[in-house]
Design goal:
Sec-tRNA_Se_transferase (chains A, B, C, D); homotetramer; PyrdxlP-dep_Trfase (chains A, B, C, D); selenium (chains A, B, C, D); three-stranded antiparallel beta sheet; Aspartate Aminotransferase, domain 2; O-phosphoseryl-tRNA(Sec) selenium transferase (chains A, B, C, D); 14% strand; EC 2.9.1.2 (chains A, B, C, D); alpha/beta
């Protein structure tokens, strides 16, 4: 644009236009490559992109005239602005990955979200992943969708094999899909405190039920210690051998290199049909979407076509903004920091535990969560004190620390889970869980340890009375 | 707050504090009554509310320390702001309507959305509705959820009875839930051009399949002319008599008094288990959520408990903001205007049609959509011209006008739909659909008619060559 | 950008790109013509523009490295966003209209503001105006700047002739510039209730002081009734004849056709060196800037060069956004509506006044403000009641209604103004002022009249006791 | 608010309300103490405050009815939001520090800005400062305002004594106020490369002009090397002795401890009537306001009363947000970092200079700016190359580095400044200026040095040809 040349020095205008051009190049590069940029985008650049995209949607056309039943009309100015004037959502009734003729901008958002999510999966270590889809629903619902999709190829099956993990929505995802969960109970490891599923149990269960009755095996990677990730490499081998679908619940495992390497390896030596992860837990966005990944494009296409209708673009917008804002280097840095903080937290917690004659449970295979015993309270039969510890932490604004009282049962949808929350009927002791998730700050660790010590000091002095 | 009294005149401060108090009263009243306010809230009032709510979520606590795997951390400042610092989503793993201990503010958003949606349902004319839940997924997916929920009470059923409507996601919602659709073909009305399902066909189909094999009957209220809403009052009677679930797809029917009155009446004289409507089509928000309503609280509770996990709060935030921004009077005014514009549009379109020896099909029972014949093109065997009309309109920035070419078939998931898009194998002529949806402006009608005339003029002169 | 062609249908992409192109054309046209667009811009279009402009400022350059003392660094993210990432302000130390090499985007904002303000002046009826500058300071300060500028050509002058208007900042603008105000007292018109300056008084004053001692005559167009605008056409003739600077305080007169026509005519037949108007009062923006206009480019250039340093761009951004958002048609419509409402309000107020044996003062030459007598309170010697009326209105959230108690004096900077607020030592009665300014809504008039009646009813019944 | 207790657990609601209460306490504390908070406020807290304040302004009253000429109406939604719905500006026509009855919220913003600015002045080291006012105009204009204010006490004076500094707006601020600048030429220091004013010159000038003719002495603290800050301690003593106003131009000196200590000391041992600093250069806000500080409340009150009219609140809003966002600790940390980076930059630049047989000029008393000689280019008579270096740096996105060519003159408002930009008719060599201002990042230094080396390499190899 040369229209201001009379007033503004041509040399400075040139420089300004160059700067603008380099912003547009960044944008073009993104639209072409659909990859997370190497370096962080600043907020202006992000707004640049969304201003461009919004102009492509028909509801923003200068002379738009809508005479249909769904025209992207938005009543509130606040709502318009918070969605950058995009309102058509993602997908078409036939396919959640489809482009909408009415909404080119929203369609590009959807493509970017899917492509950048796949890129993030690759960066995280699952390099063989072929395709993914970001679905604006919970992880549990996404697992349900996977099962509903498997059903199309195996309509007669009735059961899902599932290694116990005490997190309601995993269990409920099976029920929601209309299947009977066959629960594989865990075992305590011989050499340390870990809880794990065994391959023997799995094989016995398959044999008992019979392959034709089994829709899939659902394994879990990320979980609260002392449970550890399932041995999905060997499960994948068994599933491959027996021709059973294998669905991996990788809820917050994507943030961890070790887990990603295992998923990758499992897909190489065995069978992994889909792996499912939440966006909020792995990418620091508000709760809202789940990434379903696969090593075969056709599986993702099939799931995308299963979803009946259009869906909210909002969680995809969040993901795109966040990955642009992180850049590849920012994302990798956050992952590295998480690993470092995990070791750091474990060490510091061990020292604190020792002061109170407790210990951090030995769970070397769980690289996200850890657990500190509360044995003294058990031995003093003070389970009320244990519960109290939880609420003391919470009222001191510490959230996420989970107190597990030994041996309490719970009835869920007709099934009794003995030792609920500990994944096991009668674990050796009560304990306290903490996790090191992406985005945790070291000052949070320090503040937590200080508060925990205060609380323990109060409780232990009382409980020893 | 009395701290500035020294500088600011106490009288004006008093008035200012009074004004502030009246804003807070509005807010308190909303939180207590959970009803759409009588009058529109201004944007400042809406921001007042969300600023208050966001301070209640743990991720915004001044000294918050998070040591769990899901702490509401948000990386991007832009993302934070667009969600008003709310990040925990809605629901708990056990129940999408549950309050989250970590997120009181988000929990209130969820309650408000559900309560205000119910209020809107009542205002729309379905006064007996007892409960509803706003689910952040497509209408089709919400229908699937309803069916998955029915399955729990009728696990052996295999079929869903469905009166044909040529909208993919309705059909696919049945497949996604794992059921076989039993399609009820439509009939042309004796006295006019309407397409309708017949009760005889329904009763025959039920008899043939046998009640135990039928999960539910799925009826449709809002549809493109010449199809008309199903006779859900009598379907409801049959379902009640035979004890079959009845699911009403009320996608964009909530905006229409007539349709709402019918749903209400159906629930009084017969059986309606759930009725499902989109938020974007009825309330002018971006695509993102669906309201599932029922006349029995327990059904909604059961659906809410089926959903496995947390979900995006974003579409609920949009709904709350929009209903506050409309107020009851604004909402009712918009509905009234829609009705007036419908009559107006029909009349003007009839005049235009007459000019070209065409007519508006006689479909008095469809009060949202209408259709103008394109018979001359049929008789001249110019189906390519018909298709062209559609794209001419689109390139002139008219969206939503649907051109239906007589007698074209389509294969969807293994089933051939003859006369796809017209709900009928061989309708009497090709036609053009338009709809009068909430939020339509009269200048859009005028601009559309002008453009349509231009296009017809071009095509008809050409086709008559 | 052709990079998404593989996924998105080329036809719809084409349409989308066309829509985008038409947005960019609007923008290019604006930057080329620097005129208020014919029609309102939507908010997306406005954001489009500012996103483009912000990328042109050096602080937003992708690799910007600043090693100076002023680099446009902004600490707070909120502050960044509210200024669209622009931070360099306007002007250079030598000239407030100059372009900044570091800040092409901000410089364009400044040019746009000045050019669009001039366009608005033309549209308002002052078609001969040659140039203007938007200065981010109060109207009073802008008047001071004009006088400081005149001083450069007439350094020995000591007095400013000023027809009395009881608005502090006009008076103080003279003092701030270091001049002695020579106050011309007003006269009551023979035929009606109007207060006006007389040309005789002006000529006498000039003669008494001597032209060399007079810096300028400062006249006023917009004022509270019963004062009327000065007869600036004839003042302009006198100033031309005697070669005296003539400065017109047109504070909120720009919104009124009649006043603008007079200013225009004055410039044709006589001398008007500069006319000064506030942006907030004429264009519905927050308080912040003043437009200094002139019929000679050199005068504005000289004022622009007088201002020592850079200034806030924020009020200019507001003006640009607002004029884009109004469009020419919106702006003219608002002016027309104001005129209609003025007549309407006057009529309704007259009816109300008559009910209480009061009247609206006859001030046909004041086309913005009107006054209703409060004679009965005067005659009952109830000046406290009059004051009370003002506060009653204020506590009922009516602002802007000014109650003027007959004959109260005030000392300002050493000078006593008898009958302060009424522009006159001893006007015939107390009265109530209201004004019809641009943006007033008819429902405000109705609400005001209702409340006024309530208050009068209370006070008059009491005062007649 | 207890209205959600039925649904939300009372314990978590309690915690949420506690968190909300602690936010409100922060706000109350701020409004009571009007001090920069100890620690940074997060953005939510800042929005909390402004949402509260905006509700206090009459234009936001729920039933507001405005019948005046200035009612805070805002046309554009974007403009409303960017000003947090505040629109009344600051001050009244009588006093820019006055509270507006119509606008309690805006009035509080103004009070906060002034009080927090004073707090910042104290934190910066000028602990005796008694009062300040934030004026939304340039530093130069603020200096003009100070002089206009002094005029009221000394109407007969005609000259301002001013030690030369080659920055146009300082010089022009004197002219704008209507005074004749008496320029004190600088001397080169005996022991090093510094340029400084001498007290002898000052005393001679005073004697020559005569005290009654002198309005004030205007000194400068922050300046480009090799000029150094004026010896304001001794100037203050002289001004006190001779009873002459002393005005300190502290444009970007507030960020530097050393300079602040000197201003403080000067006020203790001598006379400093007002000291003036820009907000953008010292506090990382967009260009827009200036802080005028004084050691006597009455001086500030008098300046505040001089300003005729209301002014933009926008730059004050920026300042308040920014100081809240920094907190005391953040502000002090930024200052500390600046000091460290200054030493660092100087050392690195010296090393680079040495490589090219140049040096960093010895100017130990200038603690913000430094200068590197370009002597080789001088000796090769390559002044075009020197100019070229400047533009090479600029086109590589380095801004703020100033290249000064030896001995070029400039005519400004009728006065020739020999050796313009170097503050001196014929400095010993050409040189390059850089400054270390608050907010500079060490990566900027490194990038600059790299680019400078590249440029020097190109130019010196060429110039040595």
């Amino acid at each position: 644009m040369n229209q201001h040349s009379s007033v503004i020095l041509s040399s400075t205008l040139l420089l300004a236009e160059e700067a603008k051009a380099s912003r547009e190049n960044l944008m073009k590069q993104l639209l072409r490559q659909k990859q997370i940029p190497m370096h962080s985008w600043d907020d202006l650049q992000i707004r640049y992109l969304f201003t461009y995209l919004s102009a492509l949607d028909s509801n923003n056309f200068p002379n738009h005239t809508g005479v249909g039943e769904r025209e992207g009309r938005v009543f509130s100015q606040i709502v318009k602005e918070r969605h950058f004037y995009l309102s058509h959502g993602i997908g078409r009734s036939g396919d959640i990955k489809s482009s909408q003729p009415k909404a080119t901008g929203s369609s590009i958002v959807s493509q970017l979200a899917n492509a950048m999510a796949l890129h993030a999966i690759h960066l995280s270590g699952i390099r063989n992943a072929k395709e993914c889809v970001v679905v604006p629903c919970s992880t549990g619902m996404a697992l349900t969708l996977c099962m509903l999709n498997f059903r199309r190829q195996k309509p007669a099956a009735s059961h899902v094999l599932w290694s116990r993990i005490d997190q309601k929505s995993c269990f409920k995802s099976i029920l929601a899909a209309g299947y009977t969960p066959q629960i594989l109970q865990l075992k305590i490891d011989d050499n340390n405190d870990q809880l794990k599923m065994t391959l023997e149990d799995l094989e016995v269960a398959i044999e008992n039920l019979g392959v034709p009755n089994i829709l899939c095996v659902m394994t879990t990677t990320s979980c609260f210690a002392p449970r550890i990730p399932d041995d999905i490499i060997n499960v994948a081998k068994i599933c491959k051998r027996l021709n059973v679908f294998h669905l991996v619940n990788n809820a917050y495992g994507l943030q961890c290199d070790k887990i990603c390497n295992i998923v990758e390896e499992a897909s190489r030596v065995g069978r992994v049909d889909a792996f499912v992860q939440s966006t909020d837990k792995n990418f620091m966005v508000p709760v809202g979407a789940t990434i379903i990944g696969s090593f075969e494009r056709s599986i993702i296409d099939s799931i995308a076509q299963l979803y009946p209708g259009r869906a909210s673009a909002s969680p995809l917008i969040d993901l795109v903004i966040t990955l642009l804002s992180m850049g590849q280097d920012g994302y990798l840095e956050l992952r590295k920091k998480r690993k470092t903080l995990f070791d750091d937290f474990k060490q510091k917690l061990s020292i604190l535990a020792a002061k109170y004659d407790e210990k951090v449970l030995s769970t070397p295979k769980n690289t996200i969560s850890m657990a500190m015993t509360l044995s003294k309270l058990d031995s003093a039969l003070k389970s009320a004190e244990i519960t109290k510890l939880g609420s003391m932490l919470f009222t001191r604004q510490c959230s996420g620390a989970r107190v597990v009282v030994k041996g309490q049962g719970k009835l869920i949808e007709g099934i009794i889970f003995e030792g609920w929350m500990s994944h096991y009927p009668n674990y050796t002791c009560s304990y306290l869980n903490v996790a090191v998730a992406i985005g945790l700050e070291s000052r949070e660790i320090d503040r937590f340890l200080k508060i925990l010590e205060d609380c323990l000091c109060k409780i232990y002095s009382r409980s020893s009375e």
